[in-house]
Amino acid sequence: MDEQAFLAAYDPRDYPAVAVTVDVVALTIRDGVLQVLLVERGEAPFAGRLALPGGFVGDETLDDAALRELAEETGLQPGTGALSRVHLEQLKTYGDPGRDPRMRVVSVAYLAFAPSLPDPRPGGDAAGAVWTPAATAADLAFDHGRILAEGLERARAKLEYSPLATAFVGPEFTIAELRAVYAAVWGEDLHAGNFHRKVLSVPGFVESTGTTTARGGERGGPRAKLYRAGDARVLHPPLLRPTTEDTIR
Amino acid sequence: MDEQAFLAAYDPRDYPAVAVTVDVVALTIRDGVLQVLLVERGEAPFAGRLALPGGFVGDETLDDAALRELAEETGLQPGTGALSRVHLEQLKTYGDPGRDPRMRVVSVAYLAFAPSLPDPRPGGDAAGAVWTPAATAADLAFDHGRILAEGLERARAKLEYSPLATAFVGPEFTIAELRAVYAAVWGEDLHAGNFHRKVLSVPGFVESTGTTTARGGERGGPRAKLYRAGDARVLHPPLLRPTTEDTIR
DNA sequence: GTAATAGTGTCTCTCAGACACTATTCT
DNA sequence: AGAATAGTGTCTGAGAGACACTATTAC
């Protein structure tokens, strides 16, 4: 049987119905706090509960589907403006039978790192979407609580060996802003002086713009130099988290 | 509409047909070489070409489906004997439209680390399966070449910060055997003395059995002490690869 | 002036890597 | 005996973290 004959005889209906969705763990930092985008479900199941934004995959790549969902729920134009700087990567796929009571749903979860985005417009499609502090998000629909937890852990780990912290800030940023990203994601303050020296010592992490902020900090201090993201894809050597000895085993 | 009414009105047929499969990048070390399990496809599309073992997901978790496929293709009993020591983890999900010419297929790829397994029996179900050096595997069906490449890179990275090298060796092993794993996966020889000291200095990586091998090496040398895997889930500090400065950017 | 912050200097401790060396075992 | 390997000792350089210090700016 050649390939054409095979295709003609092939009936997709022979296979059990499975739905494929994408869910997005979209993270940003607002007011110095790590926040995640959640939507309030209007329909059963889990009507009224908070959930990760997501939906069915259409005739598109999985990456495109995730980006589309993110655009829909934030009410922003995909690929332009604030959304063009979003870092999007696949997290993990969740497909336990029974995770959705309606039918077998296999969900490809994505992790998104975004600079501070505007609040979803109350009037738009994204009416039900809200940014919520990640630490206090609880009682999510489906298995989204677990997905969020694994997304957060991935985010924390990624900051160590990748330059993705820059995805949380604007195109130009100060070292202090970058440090605030690490502090928010890791939930720990970092020593300002050592952090400063370390960031500048990693090749390709940041590059100087030659300019400084227009004014100093709100409560004093000199003007800070501005940097933009460098061309490194991995940090070498990495910025390791303060050791959490007990989480090793 | 409450949840029960919703379920009753719900028709899976309303959604476009998508098939979900698992594909497994099963790695082992045989004769000091990193090898991957491949199957020869008997049917179109890509008849006669080599592919990763895999198949449709049934009424089971994704992890169970991957383990089942691995068991089927190796001809071994799942969960017993050699297969019980296999490390299995999700790699990434591939779902580009057109990656399978028959229909939309979303494939959840898994990565498996196995100690040296017996050759698949020529007479069994796994007739078409062969262990092939990973470096020379080429011209795979579908997008399996890309999946294999990403699996290999994940495996190389995992050895740095996880104790999974022990999944490639037997329950008791010498430091030299462990070093051979690293050398095979990274494709680089490692300094015996430094490797030895480093492995023993990482808490929880290996623990001594108090015994030694029955005899020395094939070409001389003292008897080596035997170790088993420790209880660490991450290596801290990690065993870093010899720096590959050019792959950073 | 006072407080806060940006950025740099310095010291110590740890660890990776290079190299050397001894002890043990096989052929 | 000769060769190969297991395991340890030692030195050096790089880097992380603690601490101190200066310079600059807001209020």
Distance between the termini of chain A: 53 Å
Largest interface: A-B, 48 and 48 residues
What share of the residues of chain A does DSSP label as strand, in percent? 15-25%
Low-confidence stretches of chain A: 1-7
Main beta-sheet strand count, sense and barrel state of chain A: 7 strands, mixed
Helix tally of chain A equals 5
Shape of chain A: elongated
CATH class of the largest domain in chain A: Alpha Beta
Instruction: Summarize the helix and strand pattern of chain A as letters.
Output: HEEEEHEEEHHHEE
The CATH architecture of the largest domain in chain A: Alpha-Beta Complex
Computed over alpha carbons, the radius of gyration of chain A is 21 Å
The oligomerization state is homodimer
Structural class based on helices, strands and sheet pairing of chain A = alpha+beta
SSE layout and pairing:
Two copies of one chain form a homodimer.
Chain A: H1 3-9, E1 19-30, E2 33-40, E3 50-51, E4 54-56, H2 62-74, E5 87-94, E6 105-113, E7 129-133, H3 144-161, H4 175-186, H5 192-201, E8 206-212, E9 225-229
Parallel strand pairs in A: 1-6
Antiparallel strand pairs in A: 1-2, 1-4, 2-3, 2-7, 5-6, 8-9
Chain A binds a DNA duplex (27 and 27 nucleotides) through α5.
